[in-house]
Amino acid sequence: MYNMYACSPVFADPLEMKFPLLFKPLHFYRDKSEVPEWLRRANQQILDADCYVIVSAEYNHSIPPALSNMIDHFPGSSFSWKPAGIVCYSPGKIAFLFQNLVLRRNRLLFSR
To answer: Is the pLDDT of residue 112 over 50?
Structure first.
């Protein structure tokens, strides 16, 4: 029987993880031994996850630049074939819809 209380969530907060400005994403490294260790570890956490929940504030009718930068470090295949959810919040009435569309377009939730 599955024990739902045995879950161990891992939080990937752009403010805590301090991803550098994107210069070379993981999937652009031809020689995988050249991938920085912090990027390799972060990708392994993504691959090991059972599902994803992205929580994002609204920033200028989109997602915050730090979140976009963090996501762009990884190929869409790192997130593929796993259940995912988007939670967006905004002071406006419909701005969360724009965030939802941006996250979907980022190949984050519906990659194949």
So the answer is: no
